[in-house]
Design a protein that fits this description.
With 321 residues, the protein is α+β, with helices and mostly antiparallel strands. Helix content is 32%, strand content 31%. A 6-stranded antiparallel beta sheet has the order 7-6-17-14-9-10. A 6-stranded antiparallel beta sheet has the order 13-12-11-8-15-16, covered by helices on one side.
Length: 321
Amino acid sequence: MPLDAVPADAPFVIVLNVGSGRGDSDAARTAIERVLSEAGRRWRLHAVEHPDHLRPTAARAVAEAREQGGVVVAAGGDGTINAVAQAALGSGCPFGVLPQGTFNYFSRSHGIPSDTVEATRLLLSALPQPVQVGLVNDRVFLVNASLGLYPQLLEDREAWKQQFGRSRLVALGAGLATLLRWQRQLRLRIEMPSAVRNIRTPTLFVGNNRLQLEQIGIEQARALEAGRLAAITLRPVGTLAMLALLVRGALGRLGEADQVVSQGFTQMSVRPTLSYGRQRMKVATDGEVLWMRAPLLFRVAPEPLWLLKPEHPPADGEKAP
């Protein structure tokens, strides 16, 4: 059911991850409070200092927002946004975003400014609009979900960030190090309504973010506009070929490579063909790595997330009006 405009006196219940990405959480908090105070709006801010507290705090924030007829807001990177979106989906609660991460694919694709002051001001005027949500075994993903190489890249990147700090250069260095030592091939049985196939691949990547897919040059980015997800696999390749694919991705031409297979879908089941009694698989969802029980069911959520965003988002890289 479509949501109406947010009432002018609706409070904001904000979940702020003080450990997220690029910025100073104290500065972000000050900016948020100043903008909302100047606008005469009520708010309550829940600061999260430990990752284990993020999802319980998000659930409490959504319950509070529902009780008060307010808006739940995620202030953090893609992982924080994912956690709050998981709690907000199906709640009937409008959802706002104040991006604080390194890449901010979700917010950028919907025209939400990276500047905290500008993003907070947007909350005061934006209308709730439907946004597609991906699910893997009922776990939300707004940007991507993946198996194999990509989860390992994320784990190694986080380890490098802990040691060298958070930056895109550190992320690139971690990625190169992972690619140089990665040898594993997944053996998967993939079932879609139209076909069943067994494959060997170093990674399975499921995209739900137009900006990210377009940046690496995947044609299936357009499938998202038709209410579908994009599945991307790589044929088995050696280290040098993998590095060549990395360069293609950086140049926005990954989809042109013969080793890359992409397909749009609305539902897909994935299981290991050689489980040897192991029925759990390591999955990354919007940057968070966890274990899930097979088979993995990827699908489009039956209802959208109601996101506060500009009615006509500017193209990435343009300044919001």
